[in-house]
């Protein structure tokens, strides 16, 4: 819908996400004059706070998580904030919340960051208080279920009050600059699109490595595991952006139509095409860290690592493997995409003994945002042994390429789009369900084969079987 909301309602406003991401993002947007001057932000949670104490709470979060150079006008931002205590499990407090919000005639955007079990009662409370009208948008933070069935239940509950064009499902990876740059790289440069297919690309790798362990997410993570926590959402969204056909326009419907085609074309994965792992005690950056079972305090069959060899069964990608891997307690924190091109069909330098490396495109998403294209060039100099060749990188470091631009938090883009009503970088229901369908099939294979996670030492790149998964195809993981 094409209105800019002048009310933003934040559920779960005293939680970790609000402190680390939402408050800093909104304050940064305000400092850059990107928020409507009339925008009021109403926060709600179970904590017993008033407006003043919540503003102090928000100030502490900003001082902790937002760089000092981005806090300009923080006092102005804090004045936008007000607070209403609410227990979402009962309808009693929702009329008071509605009174706190005041008139929503000019549009209300709601950001729902609560446990999934509270989604349905919260929706009923909003409906009870009349906060579900045509000028109200609903933004949902993951997790959206634990499988296809539970995801459908959540989506059905939300759909009772909000039409699909008013539902904004967040995947914060889509707010990252380099992820958005995938679209620009592919569709704003004639160089890449003609060769973005199985004729020229040998394989694709997507790696999401985390150095952290459970980090206070014990209950959630042991129920979820790496496949549900990372592959089902973030990694499959990256695959969809990589593999999608050119949309007719940069429009929410056009872009998401093409993404869902990719997700529906994912081939079911065989048991020989997945590896699961669970970390044991080791060391990261010279510091000893405990194993998963030690952190959890009990034995568990939950995977903290997964590697998958996937395929997109369509004309463009026929025969091109997509190698996905993600895990906790990896040697480094990294999210990157590697597009490995094929070798030249005939080397005119072979008789000289010159070796050639195929071209490779590496797209770094975090911790550093950069794009590197490896090309083959002649080594300078003279010699009787002929021409010597070497692979050399062409680097585009995003902070260097765009001097003067802030490194933005991913939620900045997404919160601004929520307020303004642009769904392009949000996930549509059919995308979510296609993702769950593929992931559920993998879990069914694991259950059928009674596939238990293999152990790996913290500070390594997962079980040795993950290396073998790629190497039996003659592929090495990019590290």
Please provide a written account of the structure.
- It is a single chain.
- The protein has 479 residues and is α/β, with parallel strands linked by helices.
- The protein folds into two domains: 135 residues, 3-Layer(aba) Sandwich (Rossmann fold); 298 residues, Dihydrodipicolinate Reductase, domain 2 (2-Layer Sandwich), CATH 3.30.360.10.
- The protein is built from 14 helices and 17 strands.
- The strands form three sheets. The protein has a nine-stranded mixed β-sheet with strand order 16-15-14-13-7-12-11-8-17, with helices on both faces.
- Helix 6 runs antiparallel to helix 13, helix 8 packs across helix 9 and helix 8 crosses helix 13.
- The longest helix has 26 residues.
Please describe the structure with a list of short key phrases separated by commas or semicolons:
17 strands, alpha/beta, Rossmann fold, globular, 479 residues, Dihydrodipicolinate Reductase, domain 2
Describe the SSE topology.
Blueprint: E1 7-11, H1 16-31, E2 40-45, H2 51-65, H3 74-80, E3 81-85, H4 94-101, E4 108-112, H5 119-128, E5 136-140, H6 148-159, E6 167-169, H7 177-187, E7 201-209, H8 218-243, H9 252-264, E8 274-280, E9 282-284, E10 287-289, H10 292-296, E11 305-311, E12 321-327, E13 334-341, E14 360-366, E15 370-378, E16 389-397, H11 398-401, H12 410-420, H13 429-449, E17 454-457, H14 464-471
Parallel strand pairs: 1-2, 1-4, 2-3, 4-5, 5-6, 7-12, 8-17
Antiparallel strand pairs: 7-13, 8-11, 9-10, 11-12, 13-14, 14-15, 15-16
Helix pairs in contact: 1-2, 1-3, 1-12, 6-13, 8-9, 8-13, 9-13
